[in-house]
Amino acid sequence: MLSTGIDIVKNSRFDNISDRLRDHLFTDYEIENSNGKSEYYASRFASKEAFVKALGTGFIKNITPKSIEVRKNSNNQPYLVLTKDILDMIGSREVSLSISHEKEYSVAMVVIS
Fold first, then answer.
1. Inter-residue contact 106 to 43 (CB < 8 Å)
2. pLDDT score recorded for residue 65
3. Cβ within 8 Å of residue 13, ≥6 positions away
4. Region for 36 from its dihedrals, namely left if φ exceeds 0, alpha if ψ lies in -120 to 50, beta otherwise
5. Residues linked to residue 112 through DSSP beta bridges, in sequence order
6. Can you give the pTM of this predicted structure?
7. E strands of the chain, at which residues?
8. Is the CB of residue 113 less than 8 Å from the CB of residue 20?
9. What is the Cα–Cα distance from 43 to 107, expressed in whole angstroms?
10. Residue 3 pairs with which residues in a beta bridge?
11. Which residues are catalytic?
């Protein structure tokens, strides 16, 4: 079964993100690699939202924003690192992620196949 999710976020939502909210939404890896940029946080949050939309669950008890991590491979292509609970839910299905930025917005799309 093929499922998709897409999300768009206004970058300025993360202009003055509090440490508490940042620590709730993003992993240590994501925070360390953000350089404090709003666009970075917006695109990562859009990616997490797009994933839970594709999954069809939204954020629930064992699927939190921090259980979904966005990284880039050696070709600079984004991919998701997921917790064991999520991997157990999706089984052997493949997850693809695409992120795009514009001056004011970041958008992400996830395909689970």
1. yes
2. 97
3. 38, 42
4. left
5. 3, 95
6. 0.94
7. 3-10, 68-72, 78-82, 95-101, 105-112
8. no
9. 6
10. 112
11. 53, 101
Element (H, E) at 28: helix 28-32
Give CA separation, 6 vs 33, 48, 80, 110, in Å: 23, 10, 14, 6
- The Cα-based distances of 3 to 27, 30, 95, 104 in angstroms read 25, 25, 10, 27
Residues in the chain: 113
Cα(87)–Cα(3) distance, integer angstroms: 16
Rounded to whole angstroms, the Cα distance separating 8 from 69 reads 17
Give the pLDDT band (50/70/90) at residue 61: confident
Give the position of tokens 């064992």: 62
Q: Return the residue matching tokens 């990284």.
A: 71
Instruction: Give the pLDDT confidence score for residue 1 in this predicted structure.
Output: 66
Give the span between the Cα atoms of 111 and 50, in whole angstroms: 9
